Amino acid sequence: MGLNKLVFVLMAQVILLQEITGQGGVFNPFPGSPGGSFAPGAGGAGTGAGGDAAGDFPSGPMTDPSTENCELEACGFGCSSKSYTAVCHELATDEEIEKFFSNLMLFKGNLPLTVSLEGKRKYKAKTFAPVKDNLVHLVIAKHDGFSFKMLKGLTLPTLLALTVQESHNVTLGSGELTSFSRLREVAFVKTTVWSIAKKSFEVLTDLQLLALDGGYQPPFTQEERDHLLRLHCDCKNAWIRAYLVKHPLVIQPKARGEIYKVGMLWSEAVEKELIFYPVNCTVGIVEDASFESELYSVDDVCPGKV
């Protein structure tokens, strides 16, 4: 697998968003990143919990756990957070992913981990069992029609970040985040959301970052415009605007490591324009919107709906 595709796949949530390149609209989360595949036994002992991510890589498994379509990336997050990212590409079968996760049991210690899964698939508790106590950030990528109910039955006690990336028509039903109440960030990155059940985020009492429009920048495609209007201006979603007014910090910029620091795995810095796109429902989508403006009210178009 080419390095460029690997780097592309390893984008994680809005905290992984670095920039949108001007080259044909290609989305590049890690500009200038050298990447780097897993090298058995690479790195030193690391800095321990709360250590500076600028140190050596934490010691990892002495045997490469990779399979044909899954691999361990030893320089995730564009090398700004020296930790491990486990990546399974679209061609990986559920059986291969389960084998790969089992191979990851070779880890020395309980190292924090990001897992990125591409393509449509099932999410079984048995599959995640080997990594459930290491998994800090789960990235679900290129899964059109993904529903959060597919995660029902998973027990991921260390999960702090959940990203849905480059997926279409995603749905979030009532109570489907209850099992992940410890989440500090939820991100939809280059993803169109079809529906979000009312009060879905109330259970996330530790939420610090909510990216509904991650990676959306003008000029917008028609699908992206539909997404923005549906989430921001459809009266059935007026409650989202009310939630953001009540919890404005979840759409504010974040510094690196501000959301979490788990060993050498730190959350990335993120700018406001990569979190939330301001839409004035009375005039529609403006492609030169100011990100410094306050949240527009939907009261004029949806009176009494909040």
Distinctive features:
306 residues; alpha/beta; Leucine-rich repeat, LRR (right-handed beta-alpha superhelix); seven-stranded mixed beta sheet; two-stranded antiparallel sheet; 13 strands; disordered N terminus; signal
Task: Explain what the structure shows.
- With 306 residues, the protein is an alpha/beta fold.
- It has one domain (3-274): Alpha-Beta Horseshoe (Leucine-rich repeat, LRR (right-handed beta-alpha superhelix)).
- It is 14% helix and 17% strand.
- It has five helices and 13 strands.
- The protein has a seven-stranded mixed beta sheet.
- β1 (19-20) and β2 form a beta hairpin.
- The longest helix is centred in the C-terminal third of the chain and has 12 residues, at 222-233.
- The N and C termini lie far apart (48 Å).
- The relative contact order is 0.13.
- Residues 1-55 have low confidence and may be disordered.
- Keywords: Signal.
- Residues 1-22 form the signal peptide.
Largest sheet, in brief, is: 7 strands, mixed
Order of helices and strands: HEEEEHEHEEEEEEHHEE
CATH architectural group: Alpha-Beta Horseshoe
**Strand order, sheet with most strands:** 3-4-5-6-7-9-11
CATH C-level category: Alpha Beta
Low-confidence runs: 1-55
* Distance, first to last CA: 48 Å
Q: What is the molecular shape?
A: elongated
- Chain-averaged pLDDT: 77
The fraction of residues assigned to DSSP E strands is 15-25%
Write down the Rg.
19 Å
Helix content: 10-25%
Strand pairing plus helix content: what structural class?
A: alpha/beta
Q: Could you please say which CATH topology applies here?
A: Leucine-rich repeat, LRR (right-handed beta-alpha superhelix)
For the secondary structure, the number of strands is 13
User: Domains counted in the coordinates: how many?
Assistant: 1
Helix count equals 5
